[in-house]
Amino acid sequence: MKLQLIRHASLWLEYGGITFLVDPMFSGQGENPPIMNSANNRRNPLVPLPGPVDQWLSPDVVLVTHLHQDHWDHAAVSLLPHDVKLMCQPGDHKTIAGQGFNDITAVHDVVSVGRVSLTRTSGKHGTGAIGRRMGAVSGFIFEAEGEPTLYLAGDTIWCNEVQQALDLHDPEVTVVNAGGARFRCGSHITMNEQDIVDLCSYAPNTSVIAVHMDSINHCLVTRELLDRRLRQELLLDRVALPLDGEWYQTSHVPAH
What we know:
The protein is of the alpha/beta class. The protein contains 6 helices and 14 strands. It has one domain: 4-Layer Sandwich (Metallo-beta-lactamase, Chain A).
C-alpha cells in the first residue's frame, strides 16, 4: 500500500494493484470563497496543490465520499475524464451523472474492484441540527490479500459508527479527516484533537494518518496544534501528520 496526501482530503492511493483518487479538490489557491458562517474570511483553498495537477488525472477509480465542495469541486469535475470509473455513496449518483460522468457505481454495502474489496461505512458529520444539515457522509474499508486493511473514515467526528467500523474490520491503518472543522455556532464537524486521542485509545492496534488540515478556512485545528496535543499524549509514534504531497507506505502483510 502506498498513499499520498495531495491536499486536504484528496488522496492518491495505490492498493491491491489499483490506483484510487479519493475526494479530489483541484481548485487553485484562493479560487473559492470562505466557508459561510465561519470564524475568518480567508479564501479557499488556503494553499496551492503540491505539484502539477496532471499527475493525478488518470486513476483507475475515483472515490467520492460525499459532495461537499472541499471533497469534489468544480475543478475536479472539469479536469477529470468523464469516462473514468467513479464510486460514490448512495444518493450522490444523480448529481455526478448530471455533471457528465457515465461510469458511476453507488456503493450501498460492498463492491469489488479487481482484487480489492470496498466496504462502505457511515459516520456523523457533526451533531444536532448542524450534523443533520451537513447530510450523509461515508467512509470506506479497503481489503485485499497481501495488503493491510485500510479504513478511510471520511468526514466524521468520533462516534458510535466509527467505533463499530473499527470493531468489525480491525484496520491496520486508519485515515481520519482532522481539522476540527466548525462554524461560528455549534460543535465541530470533523475530528478534533480529542477525537483522535479517543480513537487511538479505543483502537490501540491501528496506525493513524491525520489529514484534512491547513487547507480550508473553517478547519481550525492545524497540524501544529494537533502535533502539540499528540506530543502531550505520547502518541506521535501512532499518528502520522503528512504534509501536502507526502507519501505513506507500508509493505506489512497482515496476519489475519
